[in-house]
Write a structure and sequence with these properties.
The structure is a single chain. The protein is of the alpha/beta class. Helix content is about 40%, strand content about 20%. It has helices at about 15-20, 25-40, 55-60, 75-95, 95-100, 115, 145-155, 170-180, 190-200, 205-215; strands at about 45-50, 70-75, 100-105, 130-135, 155-165, 220-225, 230-235.
């Protein structure tokens, strides 16, 4: 089926709350474990979670390395309000870890240098992020090149890159079958958004073309993951001239 874009921001209060209350812990943990497997040498000291939503992945990233700083970036205030609530809870449980995490509201592409996104972490961010992680943002973007151009802008030399996203199924019927299998007991707002996201998702060959246009295909690999995801991973070159 052809791609049908969906709204770029998930900023309805009820929509954001439904995602915050849903249990995505298994998928979130699987993503972090995948990062560890793909980058056994580590992700460095400055991590960026693009499209962080309510902060689930960013909260896990901050525990990977006790010396790493994590910035979660999202354009939706309703999602970031929930992320800030989660950060407040972390401050009560693990104040030292909470000092290494912050959330920033910004739309891509951002014209701000990394050190301006999180000034209290400067000067460590002046040379860009050592790793950029992006979970389920790509299919929201009407122009996918925005993501890859932002990678080039925000990532530092040799940065680790990991993108996980839905993969568009072959037909509307296949999308409905995935909904019925995966979210049969979920709130209607999540079921609706899931089908819309499947229609808006890209296929691996399309992502390869995006990387070619961004001059990143030589450095990043694209593959299928399970029966409904795709992933992009690799390290950027030492320079992005």
């Amino acid at each position: 089926m052809e791609r049908t874009p969906e709204p770029e921001l998930m900023d309805g209060p009820q929509q954001a709350l439904a995602y915050a209350q849903a249990d995505f812990s298994a998928g979130d943990q699987a993503l972090v474990e995948r990062l560890v497997a793909l980058f056994p040498e580590g992700l460095g000291g400055q991590l960026l979670d693009l499209g962080c939503g309510p902060g689930n992945i960013a909260l896990r990233l901050v525990s990977l390395n006790s010396k790493s700083f994590v910035v979660g970036l999202d354009g939706a205030p309703a999602m970031l309000a929930l992320a800030e609530q989660a950060l407040q809870q972390l401050r009560r449980r693990q104040p030292a870890a909470a000092q290494r995490l912050c959330f920033v509201q910004a739309l891509l592409p951002t014209s701000q240098p990394a050190s301006k996104l999180a000034p209290h972490l400067a000067p460590q961010l002046d040379r860009g992020f050592s790793a950029v992680v992006c979970n389920s943002l790509l299919h929201h973007l009407h122009d996918p090149q925005v993501l890859w151009n932002s990678m080039r802008q925000l990532a530092g030399p040799g940065a680790a890159v990991y993108v996980k996203d839905l993969r568009r199924p072959a037909s509307p019927e296949a999308a409905l079958a995935l909904r019925d299998r995966d979210l049969a007991d979920a709130p209607l707002v999540l079921q609706r958004d899931y089908v819309a996201s499947l229609h808006a998702a890209f296929r691996p060959a399309e992502v390869v073309q995006q990387l070619q246009r961004a001059e990143l295909a030589e450095h990043l690999q694209v593959g299928e993951l399970d029966d409904r995801y795709l992933e992009v991973w690799g390290r950027l070159p030492g320079r992005l001239d």
